[in-house]
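Shipment paperwork, digital attachment
Item: protein structure file
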Amino acid sequence: MSPSSDDVFFYIPDEPDLVALDLLDPDRDWQVMRRGQRWVLQTYLRLRQAGYPVRLTDRPPDEGTLVYHRKHQKTLKKQLNGHYDVTLLGIRGDRKECYLAHFEVVQNGRWADERQRFYIPYWPQPGLLPRDPSRGTSMRRITFKGFDLNLHPYFFSDEWRAWLEDHDMEWVHHSIPHGPSESEGVGVDWHDYREIDAVLALRPPPKKPHGRRGHTEKPASKLLNAWHAGVPAILGPEYAYRELRQSEVDYLEISTPEEARAAVLRLRHEPDLYHAMAENSRRRAVEFGAERILTQWSELLFRRVPHLAAERPRRGGSSLPHSLRFHLSILQRLLDRRPAR
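Attachment content:
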């Protein structure tokens, strides 16, 4: 079937068997999805399951809307090879701006303008198993779920584990190296919070400018997953968390290991605070459920992007070859003095 201007395609160029990907269930098979695929593939699978007219592809179509991840921009640029009448929607992820795209999806509201760049939260952890309510306000098992490079080195130390043991607590380290997830998926229990009493995440001291700006390219995933799990969160000073924070019971903010220890002791010795944070997390989770995010994606892809794309000829944008628009986008960012991430 030939593509039309109303079709929506999801682009994964580095997968030899797209048919096999089509058979995956995002809640059942999330651990086998490679890191560079998850944004695009999970969004595609959830839209398809909901009955939306979407297709998976490893090459750009001549027409329609193509959703791609910034990781694949170089490959896409080579395949476009000139002008196609296709609208490009880039998912920035943790990377730099999608210069090739007409529109972008970003992971928090810092760079969103609701005209070209749109904030849609990342999906909640697929297959998430929430905390067992029978644990009450006990504070015995604390976890970090993520990549090793995103955790302050103190929390790998014997000193940290010994401190917890002295206070009758345990460190549950659900963390993996960054590299293997690119090719092997995720082989660790990021989804299981049944016997977890708190989430803790503090990044290493920043070395790069985007870190010193509060990691404005990062999502609020650790906070959102903690809310869905019904577990209090102790988190670093990041933009994505702060923009969602309405009160202290949303999460406890820390900047140092010393503050982390103090926050842990607060939750251990103040059961009323623990209870308030657990109850609040269940309320806040409703705002960021998969159904809400699915609605945001469908609204963007099937109403807002087509409407905005239809205006492009009047602005002269669609007459530009993709390669020229790529360089003009970089120039415009520099003129605006806007960081790439």
